[in-house]
Amino acid sequence: MHGCCIWLCCGNCRWANWEFHVGFDMRAGTVISLASVHDADADAGGARRRRQVLYRGFVSEIFVPYMDPVEEWYYRTFLDAGEYGLGLWAFPLQPGGDCPANAAYLDGHYSGQDGRPVEARNMICVFERYSGDVAWRHTEAGFPNQLITEVRPDVSLVARMVVSAGNYDYILDWEFKTSGSIKLVVSLTGLLEVKATAYAHADEVAQDAHGTLVAENTIAVYHDHYVTYHLDLDVDGTNNSFVKNIVTAVVRDADADAAADTPRRSYWTVRREVAEREADGQVDLGGGAPADLVFVNPGKKTRMGNEVGYRVVPGGAMAASVLADDDFPQRRAAYCKKQVRVTPYSRSEKWASGLYADQSTGGDGLAAWSERDRAIRGEDIVLWYTVGLHHVPYQEDFPVMPTLSGGLELRPSNFFERNPLLTTMPIGHGRPLVNCSCAGGDSISR
Amino acid sequence: MHGCCIWLCCGNCRWANWEFHVGFDMRAGTVISLASVHDADADAGGARRRRQVLYRGFVSEIFVPYMDPVEEWYYRTFLDAGEYGLGLWAFPLQPGGDCPANAAYLDGHYSGQDGRPVEARNMICVFERYSGDVAWRHTEAGFPNQLITEVRPDVSLVARMVVSAGNYDYILDWEFKTSGSIKLVVSLTGLLEVKATAYAHADEVAQDAHGTLVAENTIAVYHDHYVTYHLDLDVDGTNNSFVKNIVTAVVRDADADAAADTPRRSYWTVRREVAEREADGQVDLGGGAPADLVFVNPGKKTRMGNEVGYRVVPGGAMAASVLADDDFPQRRAAYCKKQVRVTPYSRSEKWASGLYADQSTGGDGLAAWSERDRAIRGEDIVLWYTVGLHHVPYQEDFPVMPTLSGGLELRPSNFFERNPLLTTMPIGHGRPLVNCSCAGGDSISR
């Protein structure tokens, strides 16, 4: 089912149960398209066993507003994709450093300012990952004098690009798991934006410095990072619905309780809410009811009668913007007030900050589209997810920052009839899996 | 600074810049104590360069309430540590499966029911991890015709235990990073609790089934997982304070704006709030103002004058309990309504669900202690952090569940004068780092 074989040809990638295309775009960086997964349990016949998951996914924008209000810092509310280009600010990956020794590399191509083709080498790496983690396991202790343990190691495939947007470096990973999950991980590193100051010690700071004194005469300015993904999911076909499975408390009152057949006073159940229009597709992950957010295909059901779906599992970094709605930087990136938005697919709606982000006044961006309140039930819909961080700098982030990660997992949810990893074979008796820095005979301590 | 050498002797572990003790406890499972980190930038003199971080950390409780209210399911509101014992339900780890080939193993010892010592083999594994990730990097494109890229791979140390609490398996990782971070990761797998039903298809479900139909006549019941850590941080000494660095929006009104020297209407700054009493130490991560939650040592400052600290970075799985306060299961695990609580250290306050969890009515647990509202500023304080998941089962979770992870990172925040990874050497010219399943000559596809 999986192993060492990665088939990679002109960006077409086949690995384990996955098949997808890895592309390069000047503005978006990596573009994943036509991702489908093999389902051994699906109806017989080769074609139906390969099932669509993602039509196209890419980072639509990275919004980085700095929080020093003085005029000289006013322009530092960067839209890294729309103003600079994530592909243009990706640089050749360092083999063995940015990506492990087993990585394969893909080049990028785009048209230069003079219209001629430009070849950018080693823009994306693709590698198999074994981190020492477990895909599934169980120890059954229920049999007398017998322990049965089954474990399967977790091996995945990563497609990575690194964008050095001026001072800051974003490591952008697409991780494909044999469980059917796609994990999107943003790792932040690189250099902080700093400003000169007369202060040489925190005791001297007399008024709001708009940042942290990280070294003598050096303030690292407060800022945000919002990495917004455009995820045109096609869960088993084009027409999907966005469902909130809302965890809803049920509390019995004391009188009813006395007569009830159980002492349990409260529990929760799931209230299923199908988003009809775009307004229902806006979710603030920081407030409101806890919910599983699921893209389903209402036309396809499992054998058990559940709608097939993929859900969004947030993996940290869930900040939303706190700027005033009428502030100019916020108008350009108004979509950052909600981490999740769902819109109907439109060919012209690719860039969250608008096609001409540099000159945008907010009229042609994701927030404006999303306000049109179009119907999204059973349509070809797009998930926009924003990974957000309020970045208060600390001294450890200076002069270069240890990586800090956040992201999300797109996880099959009643997509398969059962755990698709069940058929994975256990570890053999050859030389076992390793994942340490000694494995290649090398050490990083030199 | 780091590399292949793990020094492990009777649970004492030294690796890279870390030193700590790994212990075993019948109830808590793994206990990490006296964790300290070497600081090359600290004042000369060997002793002062080794700095305390964590006095003692362990999983205090795992609360798993099921959401079927019928009497036969009433007792299924498990306190896995207090009622069963995480150490007692940990089983020998499978080399090559639960832990990679480069892992070392530790045994556990405890007194059996007859008072005699019991030796439990291979309870905890300790291994170095290289996942293909980056510790820090930057590409500097600011010099004409010159690209300078520096990358350092991320190599860490993991101490792992797997607890198979009946049907369910928890993979509990403590990951020590050379950046000074300690990551706590809970990975959930194993078997769902199911109940028999007459339903064979979702269309037949006539009333709330309290779960998901995952197979014919099989309902996987809704439930929660709350993994509560007791983290007695000693940041550079015993007496610490709990600080909320609250991201606070500043909005200028339009009139003032016209006269101002900047067109920027809004920004955020940090309001520093020191928790005086236990009530200030209770935080609901799902609501309220975004904040960096920091343990600081008010008696120790960096050279720049910032208080030394470690902060909590949530890594997903941030659910809080929605049960009614007077419901019996909730009374026993009342602490699950807030993900973060800070209490003064008390020798008798180890178990969030109380010393005698099985018979507890809530009077001797974390919520009751935390309600005493004791002073916590500049004291020997304890961080209690609950990783929480509302688990709506899906068909993929059946019959065994692919791992789903959540956790937190304890991250140095003005603890070091600068990024402690700066001194890491780049990759050498030997055989480079690998992390794939082929590395050991083995494949998992057999």
TrEMBL record, chains A, B:
Source domain of life: Eukaryota
Q: Sites of the modification 2',4',5'-topaquinone?
A: 168
Q: Name one GO biological process term.
A: amine metabolic process
The catalytic site is made up of: 80, 168
Q: Explain how, and how many, cofactor molecules are bound.
A: Contains 1 topaquinone per subunit.
Cofactor names from the entry are: Cu cation
Q: How is it modified after translation?
A: Topaquinone (TPQ) is generated by copper-dependent autoxidation of a specific tyrosyl residue.
Locate the transmembrane regions by residue number: none
Q: What class of enzyme is it?
A: oxidoreductase
* Keyword vocabulary terms for this entry: Copper, Disulfide bond, Metal-binding, Oxidoreductase, TPQ
Q: Which GO terms describe its molecular function?
A: copper ion binding; primary methylamine oxidase activity; quinone binding
The answer to whether keyword Metal-binding applies is yes
Q: Which segments constitute the Copper amine oxidase catalytic domain?
A: 14-421
EC number(s) on file: 1.4.3.-
Task: State the Pfam families in the record.
Answer: Cu_amine_oxid (PF01179)
Family stated for the protein in its record? Belongs to the copper/topaquinone oxidase family.
- The name on file for this protein is Amine oxidase
Q: What is the native source organism of this protein? A: Oryza sativa subsp. japonica
